[in-house]
Write a structure and sequence with these properties.
The structure is a homodimer.
Chain A (H helix, E strand, L loop, with lengths): L14 E8 L14 H11 L3 E6 L4 E5 L2 E5 L3 E6 L9 H12 L3 E10 L14 H11 L3 E7 L5 E7 L9 E10 L1 H4 L10 H8 L9 E6 L5 E7 L3 E8 L6 E6 L7 H11 L1 E11 L7 H7 L2 E2 L2 E10 L3 E10 L1
Antiparallel strand pairs in A: 1-5, 1-6, 2-3, 3-4, 4-5, 6-8, 7-8, 9-13, 9-14, 10-11, 11-12, 12-13, 14-17, 15-16, 16-17
InterPro entries (chains A, B): AdoMetDC-like, S-AdoMet_decarboxylase_euk, S-AdoMet_deCO2ase_core, S-AdoMet_deCO2ase_CS
GO biological process, one term (chains A, B): spermine biosynthetic process
Cofactor (chains A, B): pyruvate
């Protein structure tokens, strides 16, 4: 996209929406995966993204999109989109369509989150500020709470969630959002160097991060990379790479439960070598990751990185840490 | 002040500024208390407040203002002003005046904070949003970091501080900001019920919160109350009461060090009986209050109150907790 100054900018920073559904009658036949493909296509049209490929197992359908990813389990919907997509314009449509197509008539929790954009002025006006996004969501949901973690005038991470007990089953999400990437580590995510997604997954070392996962990877022309990985039980990892040096950005996200995330963090940093990153860990009381949040509080340096900010939040049923590091 | 709807609104919510000064030559004769009264009067004119009375001891000068309080020790300046005062318009003047009048040529840390206003549209345009306040401060300071604790779309607390090691001596600040006050507890803060400040201090039970302090108290006509209390060593407490039922608000602030604040919290709540309150505890590594922050994490109910939000932040040299409670 052309910026005001005329130079190309790609906004790698994703908008991330997770919605948990339920039916008031506890109808066990309700299942988001019964919704037909054309319905998802119509939803994604509103968002300005489209499906590129799909993998599935007994627990989850995982889609690579033209702009990031979508994951669908029985009760949980996750949509992550980057660039200038218009994710929040589709929330109302999503809720209505899910009610009509599969009978879930209740949203039990939502999580909308994103890092601050590098160039907010290039976004659709509804996404240009978090205040506007919050207004839109407040019009749709009772009990919505909006938070900013980190520094509002530097790097920060926004979250909108429902102030409710919400999800009772063990649930956790780990995110590592990285920027100012080492150009050398980014070279492999271009057609000039790698043949295809599979080749980039291997050359980069992504294949070693969580061994044994089922992978769907795409290398874009001339550069850029997306991958989804799934594991039995409804677990996923997803990685998206914007390799261009002037707007480099990589996101890593997973709901794989870990009693400690330190090993995973070191693996991901080893593959991507960012100049800066922020990390969020979300876990509810039932999750084994719950204890890992306290461990993270103690870590104020990581090989070659020093911590700028650390915050810990207690919600009704969830705990969250936000941490931001830079190369020392 | 008349609101758009024509009804009277008084904004009890204070703007709070704390600035720590130093001299690059380590000149031990520099002392903020050497600055003449007329210079402080001129500063307060910019803020739209004035001095009502003053007490002092060997370590501190404490002023009750027409709108809240001002505390001056050798190296530390604290200004807290409510209503529609224009505190941030005076920061540049303060820094220049201090340099000229007493030789401190360096700001080593600043803390600007406030709760969200009940009626932001009644404020001077520079104070109508935290974004605007941050822009103003960013123009003056390098390394300023802006944070929002709590819910941006409900009740929250804003903080701007320098990302520096700053103050090395033990330092802590405890604040309890209360609203939706019990009307019965507020009756005593009016001329109809109490004779003067001293009488209101006694009848309300404020005199028992920290026994033995030197108190300067004022009861306003027809209602409203301000008090400063000082203790040897540069310690203060300050309480401000806006008793009108439709905009009731009380603030309690102190830098008295405590290994645990639980007893103090219960005393303050006992006197004022708020419907809702938020609490912040700020402490640096050298402070004995440092450990109290972890204790507060465990407290999710307090007699009659339940917790809505709890956040813990680690800065370079300071730790902060933010907690918000409502009557169950």
């Amino acid at each position: 996209m052309a910026t005001a100054a005329g130079s190309y900018h790609y906004e790698g920073t994703e908008k991330l929406l997770e919605v948990w559904f339920a039916s008031t009658s506890n109808d066990e036949t309700c299942d988001l995966r019964k919704i037909r493909r054309e319905k998802w296509d119509a939803l994604l049209k509103i968002v300005r993204a489209e499906i590129i490929s799909m993998i599935q197992d007994d627990d989850m359908d995982a889609y690579v999109l033209s702009e990031s990813s979508m994951f669908i389990t029985k009760k949980r919907f996750i949509l992550k989109t980057c660039g200038t997509t218009t994710l929040l314009l589709a929330v109302n449509h999503l809720v209505q369509m899910v009610k009509k197509e599969c009978g879930f008539d209740k949203v039990i929790d939502i999580f909308y989150s994103r890092k601050n954009f590098a160039q907010p002025e290039l976004q659709h006006h509804l996404h240009q500020s978090f205040d506007k996004e919050v207004s839109l969501l407040d019009d749709m949901f009772q009990n919505g709470s909006a938070y900013v973690l980190g520094r509002m005038n530097k790097d920060c991470w926004y979250l909108y969630t429902l102030d409710d007990c919400g999800v009772e089953q063990p649930d956790q999400t780990f995110e590592l959002l990285m920027w100012d990437m080492c150009p050398k580590s980014m070279e492999v995510f271009a057609m000039k160097v790698s043949q295809d997604g599979k080749d980039a997954t291997k050359r980069s070392g992504i294949c070693n991060i969580i061994p044994g996962i089922k992978i769907d990877d795409t290398l874009f022309d001339p550069c850029g990379y997306s991958m989804n990985g799934i594991l039995p039980g409804g677990y996923y990892i997803t990685i998206h790479v914007t390799p261009e040096p002037h707007c480099s950005y990589v996101s890593f996200e997973s709901n794989v439960p870990r009693a400690s995330y330190e090993n995973l963090i070191m693996k991901v940093l080893g593959v991507f070598n960012p100049g800066k990153f922020l990390m969020t860990v979300f876990a509810n009381s039932a999750s084994i990751a719950h204890g890992s949040l306290k461990q993270l509080e103690e870590i104020d340096t990581l090989e070659g990185y020093s911590r700028n900010d650390h915050q810990f939040c207690s919600f009704k049923n969830y705990y969250l840490t936000y941490t931001q590091f830079s190369k020392s």
